[in-house]
């Protein structure tokens, strides 16, 4: 996800205050208050209540920061986060159970088990594009696993950051879950502290900064990054294909990490797809999308300038207009796009959809695999063999058929990247696992020392017996 919150400027807590805050959270964790299942349930229930009680405040903040329609904010931020919390609460007892492990004959009598343990104090750094979901969804798993947490919301979504900082202490344990607001200075101060896990969602450039900081303490890191997620179109219902491509692309004005970044369509299918895209774009947002209450705005002028500069990368099939003052950029479809053009170099992260033609699926897969591993990949076709070929032939964080972006709403599916698009995964139990150590426990009594057969001196009888047992 482009442009995260570590290297921007904003008013921040002094370094000493950050250090004192982290130390206080660690004292709460060391005191054992986060370990009981009752505490974990209380935190999850508090999150659920907060998202229900304060929906109006969150919606207003999301509208102020990103121009989000209240229903879009509810669907993509509040409801999906609430569902994650409810899912974790429902399965918490099962997730936290220990599991017996068989013991080999040569070590018996003995018992062995694995038991999930919290990691400790974790740092969660969120981006600006989904400032509620991408901060609180990781927190849900961290709390379910029994951790204390320090949260860093993005200063580029200041209204949402303020609401979260004000509301969380009212619904969660304020000693074990703390929000630190601010920009680069706050983030730099946080990354100088020792944490037991860092969960970062953002861009590749800042991801490197996080990794370098984590190396000081050998802190494990989850990186949820992004990349140019491709969509390949072969055949099917082109009206539905166009609508699903545009829906996935234009959620949050295209500022979504798993949005289709570009389309590869076969030469035979290209005319039908182009026609359908133009028609369905008007159907979604009207002839003048600037008047639509359903289209969000670009986060700031810097990103608007970057995106506007990409419009010269091809021929504008639809869209292309914008207003810098209101941060409006019209949804734009580009054709006749060169693979070497500016729009094809980095993740677009905006409402611009380049459409390139390829000969067939094989050429499309070769095109994708010649570039860094994307966070998601999409194939539109009615052919089962083509889908199988795509699954075998493309490396990506996820493979999705005949739909775009909505795979994130399935709590049983892990969400994460590979290669340059990230490391680690979360959602559902995968978030719990990310913030847990699966600790092995082995127990053997001393009343009967069956291990003496393995002690020196080694003689012929012992050697034969050990070889038979082991």
Task: Please provide a brief summary of the model.
The protein is 40% helix and 17% strand. The chain contains 15 helices and 18 strands.
Structural class: alpha/beta
The value of Rg in angstroms is: 25 Å
Neighbour order of strands in the largest sheet:
10-13-14-9-8-15-16
Low-confidence stretches: 1-12
Q: Give the proportion of residues in helices.
A: 40-55%
Strand fraction equals 15-25%
The DSSP helix count reads 15
Mean pLDDT: 94
**Main sheet record:** 7 strands, mixed
Total number of β-strand segments? 18
Distance between the termini: 51 Å
Rough shape? globular
Question: What can you see in these coordinates?
Answer:
With 470 residues, the chain is an alpha/beta fold. It has 15 helices and 18 strands. The protein has helices at residues 15-30, 37-53, 55-66, 70-95, 133-144, 158-171, 184-191, 204-215, 238-250, 270-285, 301-308, 361-369, 384-393, 429-434, 460-469; strands spanning 99-101, 111-118, 121-125, 148-152, 177-179, 197-201, 221-224, 230-233, 262-266, 315-318, 322-323, 328-329, 332-335, 352-358, 377-380, 399-401, 422-423, 436-443. The longest helix has 26 residues, at 70-95. The two termini are 51 Å apart. The model is unreliable at 1-12 (pLDDT under 50).
């Amino acid at each position: 996800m482009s442009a995260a919150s570590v290297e921007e400027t904003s008013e921040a807590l002094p370094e000493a205050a950050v250090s004192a805050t982290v130390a206080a959270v660690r004292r709460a964790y060391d005191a054992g208050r986060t370990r009981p299942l009752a505490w974990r349930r209380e935190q999850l229930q508090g999150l659920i209540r907060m998202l229900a009680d304060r929906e109006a405040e969150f919606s207003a903040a999301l509208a102020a920061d990103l121009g989000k329609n209240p229903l879009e904010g509810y669907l993509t931020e509040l409801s999906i986060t609430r569902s994650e919390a409810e899912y974790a609460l429902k399965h918490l007892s099962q997730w936290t159970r220990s599991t017996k492990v068989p013991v080999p004959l040569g070590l018996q009598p003995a018992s062995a088990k694995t038991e999930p343990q919290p990691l400790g104090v974790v740092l969660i750094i969120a981006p600006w594009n989904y400032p509620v979901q991408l901060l609180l969804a990781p927190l849900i798993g961290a709390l379910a696993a029994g951790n204390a947490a320090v949260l860093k919301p993005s200063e580029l979504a200041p209204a949402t950051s303020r609401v979260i900082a004000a509301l969380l202490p009212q619904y969660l344990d304020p000693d074990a879950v703390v929000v630190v607001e601010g920009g680069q200075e706050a983030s730099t101060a946080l990354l100088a502290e020792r944490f037991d896990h860092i969960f970062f969602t953002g861009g590749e450039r800042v991801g490197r900064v996080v990794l370098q900081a984590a190396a000081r303490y050998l802190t494990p890191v989850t990186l949820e990054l992004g990349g140019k997620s491709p969509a390949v179109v072969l055949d099917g219902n082109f009206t539905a294909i166009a609508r699903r491509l545009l829906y996935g692309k234009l959620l949050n004005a295209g500022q979504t990490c798993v949005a289709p970044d570009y389309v590869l369509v076969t030469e035979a299918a290209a005319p039908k797809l182009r026609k359908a895209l133009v028609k369905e774009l008007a159907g979604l947002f009207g002839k003048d999308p600037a008047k639509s209450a359903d289209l969000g705005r670009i986060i700031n002028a810097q990103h608007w300038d970057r995106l506007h500069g990409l419009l010269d990368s091809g021929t504008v099939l639809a869209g292309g207009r914008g207003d810098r003052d209101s941060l409006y950029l019209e949804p734009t479809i580009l054709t006749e796009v060169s693979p070497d053009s500016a729009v094809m170099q980095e993740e677009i992260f905006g409402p611009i959809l380049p459409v390139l033609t390829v000969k067939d699926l094989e050429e499309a897969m070769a095109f994708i695999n010649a570039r860094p591993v994307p966070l998601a990949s999409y194939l539109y076709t009615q052919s089962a063999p083509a889908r199988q070929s795509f699954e075998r032939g493309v490396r990506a964080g996820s493979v999705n058929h005949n739909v775009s972006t909505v795979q994130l709403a399935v709590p049983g599916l892990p969400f994460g990247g590979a290669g340059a698009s990230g490391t680690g995964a979360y959602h559902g139990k995968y978030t719990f696992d990310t913030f847990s150590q699966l600790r092995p426990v082995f127990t053997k009594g001393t009343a009967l020392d069956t291990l003496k057969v393995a002690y020196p001196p080694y003689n012929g009888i012992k050697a034969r017996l050990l070889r038979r047992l082991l």
